[in-house]
Specification:
Two copies of one chain form a homodimer. Chain A is an alpha+beta fold. Chain A folds into two domains: 79 residues, Orthogonal Bundle (Arc Repressor Mutant, subunit A), CATH 1.10.10; 51 residues, 2-Layer Sandwich (Dna Ligase, domain 1), CATH 3.30.1490. Chain A is built from five helices and six strands. The interface between A and B is large, with 41 and 41 residues. The structure holds a DNA duplex. Chains A, B: Pfam families: FUR (PF01475). Chains A, B: Its cofactor is Zn(2+). Chains A, B: InterPro entries: FUR (IPR002481), Fur_C (IPR043135), WH-like_DNA-bd_sf (IPR036388), WH_DNA-bd_sf (IPR036390). Chains A, B: Belongs to the Fur family.
Amino acid sequence: MSDLLQRLRDRGWRLTAQRRVIAEVLDGEHVHYTAEEVHARAVERLPEISRASVYNTLGELVALGEVVEVTTDGRAKRYDPNVHQEHQHLVCSGCGMIRDVRTEGDLMAALPFGERFGFAVDEVTVTYYGRCPGCAAAS
Amino acid sequence: MSDLLQRLRDRGWRLTAQRRVIAEVLDGEHVHYTAEEVHARAVERLPEISRASVYNTLGELVALGEVVEVTTDGRAKRYDPNVHQEHQHLVCSGCGMIRDVRTEGDLMAALPFGERFGFAVDEVTVTYYGRCPGCAAAS
DNA sequence: GTCTTGACTTGGACATAGTCCAATATAGGA
DNA sequence: TCCTATATTGGACTATGTCCAAGTCAAGAC
């Protein structure tokens, strides 16, 4: 993620304290924070950062392809910085925890041409649901 | 869908005018309305029906397994009454139109055991994104 | 180092989606 | 026809996200 800032600078971004903090918050594996969670964590490092800046910056990162939006439930969108390794998601239906997972085979090929209705299909997302070990033990 | 009302009665539901109208609105193929769209259509037949009743009834239908929630974007949830034929969704990234599609092969098997992290995986949803013929022509 | 300027940030108002609740109405059995 | 548990209602409230005008500042020019 450290070179994210360099990539952004290369694209003409002004590197503000706010953007740096947001990039730091998004650093790591299996990070899937909501915008409000990103804001809460950013505030710990930069107390005056606003919600608007977080929403703006996340939207820009998504537009640049540096972060992807994930919506596994109908609640808040989550932001996944793990874009350089293709993956899908495994979601615990108990606690909502999300793991990045890699699938086998060609998921796109699972959709026959006869089922494409003239669409130019260019993306497929797969979400697996189950109970994580903790939630399975608790029930 | 006409026998939906019978199934609900068998489960002890009271058949009110509101529930009948909601069931009628959800009748059909490739129906994926938001709660507000269901409400707007229900109001045409029963002007005094409230938003709360629509939300309540949709939630109950989901709990009973008669309707499934679909969230393809981060916006409002959509309600899909086509539960008796397993299917996935194809979404136009231009206009948001949704088609039900049937996939080939075992999507669950695409997730290796080594990628399950101890989860008891019991469901998989797949969403294909592309541009429908109309939106492709317009761009 | 300082100036300048256009891009960035901010707080707050607004919009949209959904939930909750106390009061009222009613389906369907007695 | 009556009774009552269940359903409906309007409206307040919460959560999530968007928009905007005013103020701030990063970084290139000098």
